[in-house]
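Researcher: Here's the sequence for the chain we discussed earlier.
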Amino acid sequence: MKSLLGIAAIAAAVLQLTAAINLDVNNTDSVKAAARTIAYGLQSFYRNNETSTAVTAVGTFPEPLYWWEAGAVWGGMVDYWAYTNDTSYNAVTSQAMMAQVGPDMNYMPPAYFSSLGNDDQAFWCLAVLSAQEYGFPVPQGQKSTVWLDLAEAVWNTQVPRWDTTSCGGGLKWQIFEANKGYSYKNSISNGGLFQISARLARYTGNQTYVEWAEKTWDWMSAIGLISPNYEVYDGSDSTINCTQLDHTTWTYNPAMLIYGTAMLANYTNQQVWKDRTEGLLTSIEKSFFSPYQNATSIMYEAACEPYNTCDNDQYSFKAYLARWMAKAAVVYPSITDNVRKYLSASAQAAAGACTGGDNKQACGQKWYVGGYDGVTGVGQELSAMETIQSLLLLNGNPPVPQHEANVTVRNVPVTSEFPLVPMVTRGPNSASPPGSVSGGVPSSSPSAGANSRSRALFLACSPWTIVIVGVLGILLWH
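Model: Thanks. This is the structure I predict for it:
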């Protein structure tokens, strides 16, 4: 009986390693099938469209996930539709994106004022920008320009928040002065404004957007958030006039920028934007791929994955790197070969990590361990889906973002003054761990070099090592 139990344990471990989602990265049908499987897994976490859901919660995910991540998910679902032509989730995606627009149609719902950041608002804006660029169906009863209207409304609320009282400019992380993190000026908030401006510039043909993209990039470079080698650091603080930086590097910061630079390279044909796109990609390749010699070209979150310190926000960050690397390659094809190399390896590894849960298809976080690491959730599912579906942009005939020249830029409303004071203080408490998108002011996190784990420790944690140790244990037992 003891031998049978031991054999069963080994079989279960091996089954986990071999039940991964089938993926041929060079086969369109295989990629679509894998993306479809993971999209279903991702949507299984969504429950806030049930009849019992409060109106303010429709389109969001339950705590501990923050409001911004729902916007990121729906942006991923817009892309899923555009890449696969699968309309299964269009209705729920449209409902979610319209449910959170807020009373002023600018993605500032009062229920979330207590933790509302410029980056949070940007993620919802980027979702509807994709809807506009790809021609996502307009909800019944809405204007044909609703997606563009929403995107421009967000831009028109963010520009007046540009703060010249410290650091020579820049957006603060949090929108409202009462919120924790209000003094923090970070890359993801300013990068969000940069990408929104770049995409609106290409879509509308209006030079005002180009000017704001240039202004944002120049400011980020001037204070050191973008280094001469295109590393992108997390942020600084207005209380010290941005004289010191948090040098933590997260995947989503350069990801946010690279799609903006690629859009401007496409639109302006200026060498400076081509150079910046290529510089960012080189930095990304060095910082966020190949954590070990036997994990070549596989994406990882360097600031937290090796230390098991990633939080719910950070579990999803790889999704945005895959998303915007692939999109950048579509509008700036010179980088396609490199992007394909890294995303193909990462997609294959991500599929191999989707062996968890009762159905053996839940996706894990660490793609480089050779199987499921036991940590799953919305962020992990989104990251795997985005990375796998991104291959559809790199093989064959990808959907190219549309553009319509000479759409008028709406005037910046003079009533939106800095700083803003929230009308209400409802919503989740701002208390995320350091480095998160919505919560306490990010402080220095362990860098990729701090407490680095050796390859030996990596092998010790490998699922194959666990199986081997199990076999040895059984033999010794007898």
